[in-house]
Design brief:
single chain, alpha/beta, globular
Length: 321
């Protein structure tokens, strides 16, 4: 993820309002379970393209979705990184309720940044990032949602979970000369979007989950999302407010980002929003651990995971016929 112009706490569910008739019966999102999925991904180490650690994590992700009753496919390709290096890319596609023609798409990236180039200590700028929040959190929320869909099946709605690879290979800050090349980011979603467009894949809409577990995170209206799918942004933020998570989803303008949802919107022509944190103050608008060696499970907030997970889960159940 990067800023488009360059490269790009609160209480828990205890304050949830009583379920209103407008919201259909829905399981409770289990943040403890989602947190374990974050830890398990991090136990493999950094998930860098083409490494044994990434391959093992990819197999683990596939096995989790298969265990939850999803049909799982892989999409493999070669991508060119910022310096022209050819690298293998693996997108993982898990589909729930494959017979349903009405479909919702959830997506996140599973790879991690090879360089902690935003770390306050320059000595760490070429150290790989563990990616507890930036990568693992979105995948973990999707796996937990898949688990709950299996326990309480959706009626008449299918869900496609897309795990994008090669999102975080954008030009490092230490590159010389440093070029503002936005095309070096989000390589896996570009591969996926081109194939989705060719295949005529048309879900109702998509939701990208990027860094959805960081301590202190709140999610403002990301501006590319507002341009392409403002109605979906409003639907999600209104629902979060209804469920008592309004402090995590403020009605305020966020950044304009280069993230996987750009390829989904512009290439695949699928309206897709980005649930992504916005920190108005601090060393980065993405939070203090972004692209640092501190992006570890210790800096994940289960309350944030719950706010995002329960909101998206309720959204899916509300889509039932």
């Amino acid at each position: 993820i990067s800023l488009a112009l360059v490269a790009c706490g609160g209480s828990s569910g205890k304050n949830k309002q009583a379920q209103t008739p407008a919201h259909k019966a829905c399981p409770s999102f289990q943040s403890d379970s989602a947190f374990r999925y974050i830890e398990e991904q991090c136990n493999f180490g950094p998930r860098l393209l083409g490494t044994p650690e990434a391959d093992k994590c990819a197999e683990w992700i596939k096995s989790q979705f298969e265990r939850m009753g999803c049909a799982v496919a892989e999409q493999k390709a070669q991508v060119s990184t910022w310096d022209g290096t050819k690298m293998p890319c693996r997108n993982i596609i898990a589909s729930y309720n494959t017979s349903a023609t009405s479909r919702i798409m959830l997506c996140a990236h599973w790879d991690t940044r090879p360089w902690a180039d935003n770390d306050p200590n320059p000595d760490n700028h070429k150290t790989p990032v563990l990616g507890a929040n930036d990568g693992a959190s979105g995948v973990a929320v999707m796996i937990e949602i898949a688990r709950l869909l299996q326990s309480q099946p959706l009626q008449g709605v299918g869900v496609d979970f897309i795990c994008f690879d090669a999102e975080d290979m954008g030009t490092p800050e230490w590159a010389e000369p440093l070029t503002d090349d936005q095309d070096t980011w989000c390589l896996g979603s570009k591969v996926w979007a081109e194939q989705a467009a060719a295949n005529g894949y048309r879900p109702k809409y998509g939701i990208l989950l990027d860094m959805v577990g960081g301590r202190g995170a709140t999610f403002s209206h990301e501006q590319v999302s507002m341009y392409f799918a403002s109605n979906i942004v409003k639907k999600v933020w209104n629902l979060a407010s209804d469920l008592g998570y309004g402090q995590f989803f403020p009605y305020q303008e966020g950044g304009t980002l280069v993230d996987d949802h750009i390829n989904v919107n512009t290439i695949a022509q699928i309206p897709c929003i980005d649930i992504v944190p916005y920190f108005a103050d601090g060393p980065s608008s993405f939070g203090p651990t972004w692209h640092t060696i501190n992006d570890t499970p210790e800096n994940i907030d289960k309350n944030v995971l719950e706010a995002v997970g329960q909101t998206v889960l309720q959204l899916l159940y509300n889509e039932q016929k």
